[in-house]
Amino acid sequence: MKLSTKGRYGLQAVIDLAVHADEDAVALSQIAERQGISMNYLEQLIAKLKRAGIVNGIRGAQGGYMLSRPADEISVGDILRALEGDLNPVDCAEVNEGEGCCRISGSCVTKYVWKRISDSINDAVDGVKLSELVAESKRIQNGASATETKEKHTCGK
Amino acid sequence: MKLSTKGRYGLQAVIDLAVHADEDAVALSQIAERQGISMNYLEQLIAKLKRAGIVNGIRGAQGGYMLSRPADEISVGDILRALEGDLNPVDCAEVNEGEGCCRISGSCVTKYVWKRISDSINDAVDGVKLSELVAESKRIQNGASATETKEKHTCGK
DNA sequence: CTAATACCGAGCAAAATAATAGGAATTAAT
DNA sequence: ATTAATTCCTATTATTTTGCTCGGTATTAG
Questions:
Q1: What share of chain A is helix, strand, coil (3-state, %, to 5)?
Q2: CA distances from A14 to A10, A19, A36, A64 (A)
């Protein structure tokens, strides 16, 4: 019941992108370096985000990535679902709603529970907009000591 | 971000146990057969539940398992946490709360998000008591056709 | 005694995750 | 036009986790 590194790295990458949204386009190499993530791996994550229409890629020299829409129109849920797939705790929470599947054998009284968890998770992540995290991130950057720089994240694993 | 079979099978096993709570002790083999789960595997799951103090084992012939307390004093959260470990989406949601870990590098603005998800999940699962599921299960059993029996669950994977 | 059961731990195959690697296509800058 | 920087695409490999099997020991009702 853990998020994979896809979700964690990916969300951080998008935040990084959003924080540097004033620049034209941010190269993958920059994000990778700032966040301490392998660039090759990050590439695969950002590909998912691109497919989901969250970021746009700009090819060629001086290319990079940009958010495809304003940060307050992107929720954490959008990002995590793009990276991790749906956030349901089991696959039948939504699916097979009206069918004979589980109910017959009586084995899916649990369905009700899964649905509740599912709804809770989705409400939680949809309620947080990327813009909020960007604001918070900038606040921390300013308040923090001047000597701090990128630093492999020792946490979050 | 999926629950493993540990959580799904395990919860079903506990429900089965609770439904048959009138009998003295329910043998693992019976639960396994009714729920269509490998007995050897189920044994490992129930061991976790035992360690967590949710079920009691009774050894010897005619032995089996019983709930260690009434079904309305056991929440789905108790059961799932026993089986899956904590239900936090990432490991640092609670940990390292007051330490320098993430905050310094500014890489953990996300912590706020993880905490929100975490709280949502835990609230959701703690809000459902085993007794509710048992009641629902019995209701379905009665309402259903008389010919139904155990049936490998085709769903929930 | 014996059969039924819980209890314990080692091992293993398959799947998922995390990462690496190499190259092709595109484009700004010179 | 050439070059260097970059996205884009796909294959492969290593590592970890999951789901499960197996063999044995301990305990107890009948």
A1: 55, 5, 40
A2: 6, 9, 14, 13
What b/e sequence results for B128-152 when a residue is b if at least 16 CB atoms lie within 10 Å of its CB, and e otherwise? bbbebbbbbbeebeeeeeeeeeeee
Report pLDDT digits (tens) over B24-76: 999 999 999 999 999 999 999 999 999 999 999 999 999 999 999 999 999 99
Residues lying close to strand D (Cβ under 7 A), chosen from 60-99 of chain A, are: 60-65
To which residue do tokens 């991130």 refer?
A: A137
What is A5-143's CATH topology? Arc Repressor Mutant, subunit A (1.10.10)
CB contact under 8 Å between B102 and A156, yes or no, is: yes
A55-58 and B55-58 as β-strands: parallel, antiparallel, unpaired?
Answer: unpaired
Arithmetic mean of pLDDT, B7-23: 95
CB contact under 8 A, B121 and A120: yes
* pLDDT, mean of each 10-residue run, chain A (157 residues): 97 97 94 96 98 98 97 98 97 54 58 94 98 92 56 45
Whether nucleic acid strand D comes within 7 Å of the CB of B57, the answer is no
Q: How many residues does chain A have?
A: 157
Instruction: In whole angstroms, give the CA distance from residue A77 to residue A91.
Output: 18
Sorted by sequence, the CB contacts under 8 Å of residue B107 that are 6+ apart come out as A12, A35, A36, A151, A153, A156
Residues B13 and B36 sit within 8 Å (Cβ to Cβ): no
Whether nucleic acid strand C comes within 7 Å of the CB of A40, the answer is: yes
Instruction: List the single residue in B with minimal CA-CA distance to A6.
Output: B1
The domain spans of chain A are: 5-143
Of B106, B127, B153, the CB nearest to A140: B106
Which listed CATH number (1.10.10.10, 1.10.760.10, 3.40.50.10540, 3.10.450.50) goes with B5-86+129-143?
1.10.10.10
Quick one: tokens of A107?
A: 């084995």
